[in-house]
Amino acid sequence: MKKICVLGTGMAGWGAAHHLRMAGETPVLFDKKDHYGGHTASFLREGQFTFDEGPHVSFTSHERLQKLFAEQIDQKYETLHTKVNNYWRGHWVKHPAQINLYGLPPQTIIDVIRDFVEAQNKQHGEIVNYEQWLRASFGHTFAEQFPMDYTIKYHTTEAKNMSLDWIGPRLYQCKLEEVLRGALLPATPDVHYISGFRYPSHGGFVSYLRRFMDSSDVRLSHSLESIDPKAKQVRFKNGVSVPYDGLVSSVPLPDLIPAIQGAPREVREAAARLSCSEVVIVNLVVDRRDLVDAHWTYIYDRDVFFTRVSTPHLQSPHNVPPGCGSLQAECYYSKKYRPLDRTPDECIEPTIRDLKKIGVLRETDRILYRETMHIDYANVIFDLERADALAIVHGYLDELGIAYCGRYGDWKYIWTDESFISGESAAEKILGR
Ligand SMILES: Cc1cc2nc3c(=O)[nH]c(=O)nc-3n(C[C@H](O)[C@H](O)[C@H](O)COP(=O)(O)OP(=O)(O)OC[C@H]3O[C@@H](n4cnc5c(N)ncnc54)[C@H](O)[C@@H]3O)c2cc1C
C-alpha cells in the first residue's frame, strides 16, 4: 500500500481519491478550508437558505458519472430543462443572442445581419486571438456589442488579449438561416450546449460529495506550506508534516509552485504569469419567487455592476423556504486586469441597485438575507501568455512526479465532471498505469 496524499477536496480531489480507493489504496485528503468540496461546497444559511459557492449545476454527458453522482444522493435529484437568458441594453434576449434578435432595435438587427453576411463571405487571414475569431464568426456589430463587452465583464480583459483554445461549444456558431429566423420570429429552438441539468434535491451541490468525503480520511484546515520533492514530504501551515509515496494536487498552480522547495526561478516566474479571475458572489433571498424565469442570465451592459445572475430556488425548491426566491449575482475581478477595488460586502449595494435597474428586483421586495462569498480562483483567463507559461510549469511538475489535476492544476476552463475525470487521470499516474 502506498502513502498517497491528495491536496484538495473538490471535484478533482474526489475523482482522484475515488479512483485510488477503487484501486485498493487508502489516500488521505487535505484541504486548507474547514469544509470539503472546494467550489462545489454548499452552505446552509440561517437554517433555511442553501447557497453553493457560486451557481453549480451538473450537466455531465458521461453516463458513468451521471450514475455515480446519482448514487451518492440515492437518486434524489431535480432534472431541469435549462433556461438561459441574456440582458442587453434593456432587452431580455433568449440565449444565444445571435439567433434570437427578435424585438431588438431594427437598426441593430439590420447592422448585425449585414455584418454577419459580410463576415461569412469574406476571407479571413490567420486568426490568432479571440477578437478576430468573434469578428470572423459573427461580424463586427454583434462581436462588438455582445461578446466583446461580455468578455471584459467576465474574463476581465479584452478579447484581443485572449487565445482561442477555450472556446469549444461555449459560443454557438450559427447559420444565416438561424439568424434570420431568430430576427423574424419570437420563438426559436433551444440550442444551448447545456440543454438540461441535474441538481441534488436537498443540501445543495455538495451533496454529491458528502457520502464519499464522510467515509474518507479527510484532514481539513491543512493549508499547504511546502513540498520537499526530494524527501517526499508535504508540510502544512499548522505544523503537520506528512511523508508521501504519491502526491496528487488540485491546488492552484500559482500557489503550488512557490511551495515547492528548490523550484527554479524560471518555473516560479512562469507560474506567476498564469492569470485567473476572482469573483464576488452576492447572495440574496427575497420574499417572492417570480424573479427571473431563467436559471442564469448573462448581463452584457458595462454599466450594470454584475456579470451573471442565477436563481438557486429554481435549481431545487428546497434551496429556500416556500414563497421565497434566491439570487446569486457574480461580479468578476482579476489581480492582473481588474483588481478588486472594494471589500466583497461593498458589492452588495451596487448589485441590489442594478438588480432594480434591470427589473429583477422591485422597490417593494423584502430582502430576507444578504451576504457575499469571495472566490479567489474563479475562471482561468486564457490570455496570450497562458500556453507558454503553462508548458513550463507542467513540464516541471511532470519531472517531479507530482500529479496535478482539476481546474487549477490543469489550468483549464473545465467543469465539475471534467475536474473529476482529471482527478482520476492524476490518480492513474500515481498508480503508475
Ligand atoms: C462561479 C462558478 C460557477 C461554476 N458553475 C459550474 C456549473 O454550474 N457546473 C459545472 O460543472 N462547473 C461549474 N463551475 C466549475 C467547477 O466549479 C469546477 O470545474 C470544479 O469545481 C473544480 O474542481 P477542482 O477540484 O478542480 O477545484 P476546487 O473546487 O477549487 O478544489 C481545489 C481545492 O483545493 C483546496 N486548496 C487550494 N489551495 C490549497 C492549499 N494551499 N492547501 C490545501 N488545500 C488547498 C481548496 O480549498 C479546494 O478545496 C463553476 C465555477 C465557478 C467559479
Mean pLDDT: 97
What's the alpha carbon Rg, rounded to whole Å? Answer: 22 Å
Termini gap: 15 Å
Strand order in the largest sheet: 7-6-15-16-17-14-18
CATH class of one domain: Alpha Beta
The parts where pLDDT drops under 50 for at least 5 residues are none
Q: How would you name the CATH homologous superfamily of one domain? A: FAD/NAD(P)-binding domain
Can you walk me through this structure?
The two termini are 15 Å apart. Among the domains are: 4-56 and 205-274 and 384-430, FAD/NAD(P)-binding domain; 96-184, no CATH class. The model has no long low-confidence stretch (mean pLDDT 97). By secondary structure, it is of the alpha/beta class. The protein contains 15 helices and 19 strands. It is globular. Helix 9 runs antiparallel to helix 10 (265-272). The strands form 5 sheets. The protein has a 7-stranded mixed sheet with strand order 7-6-15-16-17-14-18. The site of flavin-adenine dinucleotide has 34 residues, from helix 1, helix 14 and helix 15.
Structure summarized in a few sentences:
This protein is α/β, with parallel strands linked by helices. The protein is 33% helix and 21% strand. The protein has helices at residues 11-22, 63-72, 106-120, 130-138, 140-145, 147-154, 176-184, 207-214, 253-259, 265-272, 312-315, 348-357, 386-400, 407-411, 416-430, and strands spanning 4-7, 28-30, 42-45, 49-52, 77-81, 84-88, 91-94, 196-200, 217-219, 224-228, 233-236, 241-243, 246-249, 277-286, 296-299, 308-310, 325-334, 367-375, 403-404.
